[in-house]
Amino acid sequence: MSDDTRHQTDAILHAETDDLPADRYLDRELSWLAFNQRVLELAEDPTVPLLERANFLAIFASNLDEFFMVRVAGLKRRIVTGLAVPTNVGRAPTEVLAEINRTAYELQLRHARCFAEQVQPGLAEAGVKIVDWDTLDDADHAILTEYYEQHIYPVLMPLAVDPAHPFPYISGRALNLSIRVRNPRTDKVEFARLKVPQMIPRYVRVDRRESAEDVRFISLEELIANQLDGLFPGMEVIDHHVFRVTRNEDVEIEEDETENLIQALEKELLRRRFGPPIRLEISDDMDEATLDLLVREFDIDEEQVYTLPAPLDLGGLFAVTRIERPDLKFTPHIPVTHPQFRPNTPSDKPDVFRAIARREVLVHHPYESFATSVQAFVEQAATDPDVLAIKQTLYRTSGDSPIVASLIKAAEAGKQVLALVEIKARFDEEANITWARKLEQAGVHVVYGLVGLKTHCKLVHVIREEQGRLRHYCHIGTGNYNPKTSRIYEDFGLFTSSDEVGRDVTRLFNVLSGYAIETQYDRLLVAPLQLRQGLLDRIEREAEHARAGRPSGIKLKANSMVDESIIDALYRASRAGVPIEIWVRGICSIRAGVPGLSENIRVRSVLGRYLEHSRIYAFENAGDREVYIGSADLMHRNLDRRIEVLVRLLDREHLARIDRFFSFAFSDEVSSWRMLPDGSWSRRVVSEEGEPLPDLQDLVMVDRAEARSRGAR
């Protein structure tokens, strides 16, 4: 599209935007809560195995913690400081914040009921019991008391609160006991706080047996609470209650050229520990005097207090779900090696480079193995004598990752190795700093990207000498280079030896590690310079096709969709008659099926055993289809403040595979959530005949097995 045409198009788009209704966006924070409600609905689903339901309860709790630490904290900070608060729903920010608090509280109460009335009794009936101290006999008490004295008592630190002892600092997300004790000599009531140690397992096995068939757990706070007399000898323990505070833990780094980025980040991480309180969770038996003290000391408002039945912080259920009870979990799925990466005979050694040189390879994790594709690619590159250089972006991985080990091995072997480490990956900052320094010590060239931008793209670039010329081998993915999460995150990755892609990736790495200013790419769309406009141009092109009576259509899959300009372009395309299918896991601010606005837009959401993480952008383009995969969601931060990459798929089999993937998600015969015109979500799990609908992720497993038997790629 020429500059003149683009200017004309922009003018048309802005004029048409004036015709769009003011209430065309759903609030992003409330939409996020709707996503977490879908997680909760999986925990409430009686057809889901019991330990998986407990896992979804824990995921819900962990998600909500992060939501308060980042999203609610940021909104409240802006309101308090008078900064502009972005809102696209035409309501006052304080009104939106009040609704967030109400909705989140209702969901937490529902979450607690699900545990108390469904999951806990169901687990008990299956032989996995979470018990109270009072239900145990003397023999059990003796076992637990011995465990307490050996493993817990020495690390406890009761802190008195009186004129000589000010109210202590309470760390975020830690469980605490508020304790009132009476001095029998003076009859004076005192207050103390006891932190429940976070390094000790949250749920303690009552039985010391190895068997998982009939097990009992007691929560750590319940065990400690029944040993308080020994912590306050000579004092009378009147009562105790559990509470927990969530703090603002978002990190904001003011980057400039005068301060080392790592040093700036380390200072900000230290500040994070002391962020202001955002939410106070208390057990529903807490007395008014204790509550008044906490509210006063934390300086919080009434709507920030969440009164809940015990136990607080059901994220602790992660520990319970690790027991070996396969009958209470999803049937295991073992990732398989992609057919193109299999050796011809069992005695042959896999050759990843030869496979990629023959044809491009599209892998789909976790259905297809990360270890025998991405990991094997980097490992072979590290040891191959013909490989001269390896460049890789790293956003989230683990310090013991074989990917990191391979990069170190390659550097030690004398290869040129560049690792672009994003140390600002939220809540992984400290870990990323640690292993980035290990890479540097091994001789890897470590860079941290561009000032003001996070590097979120997923790239590996290997340069190999073959028959006197250099050849490019690239991997471009939708997910992180993390072997652990690759088993539970759904992602695509493209392997290619295309010279065109190799040139594009070479240019991009020069931008990231040096001072190059490159704006032209052939097969990639790169944020923040081209991606937004590239998507807008393609959406408008589909609208033009529809107006001209040519085949048109848009299919999008993303984690989140909140960008107003993209949403408005989709509304205009819908009005032009373009059929639009949007598959979103989390936040979605677009409205689907609204008369006069989005009749041609359908929105689906799929949640299950795997976290849907891939991003796909497909355009019918009058029969000359364009399909991209990559790292970018449809959010301001992805399009404007991050380095993101989409790569176009060209292989017909790959395009057909993406089509089939979408057909599963939008089939009326597959279980999913549908967005209704009012912005709410409806889950469909049974057919019109009352039969259970199949799970999409189960269908993909079967589909890939059938494809392997046909030798498809």
From TrEMBL:
It catalyses: [phosphate](n) + ATP = [phosphate](n+1) + ADP. It comes from the Bacteria. Pfam families: PP_kinase, PP_kinase_C, PP_kinase_C_1, PP_kinase_N. InterPro entries: PLipase_D/transphosphatidylase, PP_kinase, PP_kinase_C_1, PP_kinase_middle, PP_kinase_middle_dom_sf, PPK_C_dom2, PPK_N_dom, PPK_N_dom_sf. PROSITE patterns: PLD. GO terms for molecular function: kinase activity. It is an enzyme of class 2 (transferase). The keyword Cell division does not apply. Its EC number is 2.7.4.1. Its cofactor is Mg(2+). Signal peptide: none annotated. Mg(2+) binds at R396, R426. HAMAP family: Polyphosphate_kinase (MF_00347). Belongs to the polyphosphate kinase 1 (PPK1) family. Catalyzes the reversible transfer of the terminal phosphate of ATP to form a long-chain polyphosphate (polyP). This is Polyphosphate kinase.
